[in-house]
């Protein structure tokens, strides 16, 4: 079973370096942290979509992803989440 917490752990692996993932109660959400970076949260919304939030970004949700049922699809989403974090982190550095 894939949970927001297990997805966060996979994204931390993809991002590498000092990125770490933590899980919420019952793995209902996943949190990604790195030094000198915003904290990112993954959770499932009321529509069943996996949502990515940057905790310090007042605009709210950065991206959302529909549920997939294959290991390949899960990996594609993990890569997309990592890319969204990279883009947000780079944009935040430029501000």
Q: What features would you highlight for this structure?
A:
alpha+beta, five-stranded antiparallel sheet, 95 residues
Q: What is the total tally of β strands?
A: 5
Order of helix and strand elements from N to C terminus: HEEEEEH
Find the structural class using helix and strand composition: alpha+beta
Major β-sheet annotation: 5 strands, antiparallel
Are there runs of 5+ residues with pLDDT below 50, and where?
A: none
- Terminal CA distance reads 38 Å
User: Which bin fits the share of residues in helices?
Assistant: 25-40%
User: Can you count the helices?
Assistant: 2
Strand order of the largest sheet: 1-2-3-4-5
Instruction: State which percent range the strand residues make up.
Output: 25-35%
Radius of gyration: 12 Å
Gross morphology is globular
Mean pLDDT: 91
Protein architecture, described:
With 95 residues, the protein is of the alpha+beta class. Helix content is 38%, strand content 25%. It has helices spanning 4-15, 71-94, and strands spanning 20-23, 29-33, 40-44, 50-54, 61-65. It has a five-stranded antiparallel beta sheet, with helices on one face. A hairpin with a 6-residue loop joins strand 4 and strand 5 (61-65). The longest helix has 24 residues, at 71-94.
